[in-house]
Amino acid sequence: MMTVIIVIIVTAINTVFGVMLALYLVRADWIGQKLKRLLNSLVDLPFAVSPVIGGLMIVLLLGPNTVIGALLEGAGFKVVYALPGMTLATLFVTFPIMVREVMPVLQEIGAQQEEAASTLGAYPWYTFWRVTWPSIRWGVIYGVVLTVARSLGEFGAVLVVSGNIINKTQTATTLVYQDVENFNVAAANGVALVLAAFSALLLLMMEWAKKRKEVH
Amino acid sequence: MNVRLNSRWWSFGFRSAIMLYFVILIVLPITGIYVQSFSLGLRPFWDSVSNPLAWKAVLLTLKLAVIATILNMALGTMVGWVLVRYRFPGRRLLNSLVDLPFALPTAVTGLMILLLLGPGSFVGEWAGKAGIDIVFHEPAIVIAMLFVTFPFVIRAVQPLLEEIDASEEEAAYTLGASKARTFFRVIFPSMLPGILSGAMLAFSRALAEFGAVVLIAGNIPGKTLVASVYIFGEIESDNPQGAAAVSIILLTLSFAILWIVNYVQGRRTNR
C-alpha cells in the first residue's frame, strides 16, 4: 500500500535530517545567535500550518501549471498527484517532530563530553557515534515513533496533493474518507480498525520509549 | 593536514545540504503561498476574502475553535490535576491514553465520532429525539476539535504541577488558608503559563483541523463549512488563488499564536 511506502521514506529522511538539524541548532557556533533563534522558530512552522494549506503550497509550487512542475513533467517526472508529491507533503508536516524531540536532550547533556572527545583527538564522526549517539538514542527513537504515527495518520495534506486516484495514489486515510463519502461505512470501518489498531500499537511503543528516555 | 582539509570540506558540504533542505522544504512553500495569493494584485485577493462564504467559513472556524479551546482549558486542567495529584489504579493507563489523539489518524477520529453519534447510533437517535442535532452540525465540529486538541493543555500543565513545591502549599494551609483559597492563590498562578501556552497550541491546532472535521461537519456552505474544508473545496474546484487567500488569513493567525507562545515560553525560561 502507498501508506507503507510513504511512512518508510518519510521516517528515514526526517530522522537523518531532523537529528542533523537539531545538532546544528544546538551545537554549531558558525551560525549567529540571532540566525539560530530565527531558524529555531522556523522549525515550528509546519505545526502552525494547517495540513490542507501545506498540501496547497506543494500544489502551487510544483503543480503542472508552474515553472518547476512543467520542467519536471517535461523530464518525465510527475510530482503532484503522484508519490513524490505525497511524500513531500508528509515530510513537510512531520518535519518538526524529530527536531523538537532531539533538541532538548542535546541541550541537557551539554557539550562537555563531546569537547573532551575531540580534545582527545577523536574525529567528528567518531565523536558522534561513540559519545553523542548513545545519549540521544531514546529521544531519537521516541521521535521516530511519533513521526511514524503522524505520517500514518496524515490526511489533509495528502488528500490535496494526491488527487486521490483509486489504486494509484490512495492512502489508507484517504480511503477511509472516500468510503464514508460513498456511504460505504462498513468498508471504512475495516480500514479504520486496522489504522486504529496500529496507532494503539504505536502508543504502546511511545510509552515504552518515553520510559527508556527518562532512565537516561 | 590532508585529512583535516578533507573533513572540513565534508562538514561544509553537510551544513549546506542540511540548510538547503530546510529552506526548500519549509521556507520556500510558505513564501510561495504568500506570493501566490497576491499574484493578481490586491483586488482579487480582497474579492476572494470578502466572498461571504469565505468570511462565514473563517468566522465559524474561529468561533468553534474558541469554544473548543475554552472547554479544553477547563477539562485539560482538571485531568492534568487528577493525573498528577491522585494515585489510583489505572492511572498509568489513563496517562498514556491521553496521547491517543496524537497517535490516531484524524480521519479515523472523524469516522469514530460519526459512528458513535451519527444517525442510527444510540446516542444520535436519543439526541435527535431531544431535538439536538449533533452530527453534520456545529456540536459535532466542536467535539472533533476537542478530541484532537485534548492532549495539549494536559501535557503543558503536568510538568508544571509536578514542579510545584509541596511546601508552598503546606505553608498556605498552615497559615490558615482554605482549600479553595490555596488553589487560586498558590497553585493556580504557577499553572497558568502552562494552561495558556497549551490553550494557544490547542487553538491553532483546532483552527487547522481538517481530517476529523471534514467527515462529520456536513460541509454546508455558510453553515457548517469550516475554513480548512473551504480551502480544500476551492482547490478541488480549481481556484488556487482563492484557496491561497483564505489560507493566508489562517496562516497569519497561526503564526501570531505561535509567536506569542514562543514569547511567553522565552520569558518563562529567562526568569
From TrEMBL, chain A:
Species the sequence originates in: Paenibacillus cisolokensis
Cross-referenced NCBIfam families: 3a0106s02 (TIGR00969)
Subcellular location per the Swiss-Prot or TrEMBL entry: Membrane
Subcellular location, principal: membrane
UniProt-listed SUPFAM superfamilies: MetI-like
Function: Part of the ABC transporter complex CysAWTP (TC 3.A.1.6.1) involved in sulfate/thiosulfate import. Probably responsible for the translocation of the substrate across the membrane.
Top-level taxon: Bacteria
Pfam families: BPD_transp_1 (PF00528)
Protein name: ABC transmembrane type-1 domain-containing protein
Membrane topology category: Multi-pass membrane protein
Keyword Transmembrane helix: yes
Subunit structure: The complex is composed of two ATP-binding proteins (CysA), two transmembrane proteins (CysT and CysW) and a solute-binding protein (CysP).
Domain ABC transmembrane type-1: 1-204
From TrEMBL, chain B:
SUPFAM superfamilies referenced in this protein's UniProt entry, alphabetically: MetI-like
Membrane topology classification: Multi-pass membrane protein
Keyword Repeat on entry: no
Pfam families: BPD_transp_1 (PF00528)
Domain ABC transmembrane type-1: 58-261
Cross-referenced PROSITE patterns: ABC_TM1
Bilayer-spanning residue ranges: 12-35, 55-84, 96-117, 210-232, 244-264
Localization (cell): Cell membrane; Membrane
Keywords: Cell membrane, Membrane, Molybdenum, Sulfate transport, Transmembrane, Transmembrane helix, Transport
Principal localisation: membrane
Gene3D superfamilies attached to this UniProt entry: MetI-like (1.10.3720.10)
InterPro entries, per database record: CysT_permease (IPR011865), MetI-like (IPR000515), MetI-like_sf (IPR035906), ModB_ABC (IPR011867), Sulph_transpt2 (IPR005667)
UniProt superkingdom: Bacteria
Quaternary state and interactors: The complex is composed of two ATP-binding proteins (CysA), two transmembrane proteins (CysT and CysW) and a solute-binding protein (CysP).
Described function: Part of the binding-protein-dependent transport system for molybdenum; probably responsible for the translocation of the substrate across the membrane.
Entry similarity comment: Belongs to the binding-protein-dependent transport system permease family. CysTW subfamily.
Protein name: Molybdenum transport system permease
Organism: Paenibacillus cisolokensis
UniProt lineage: Bacteria, Bacillati, Bacillota, Bacilli, Bacillales
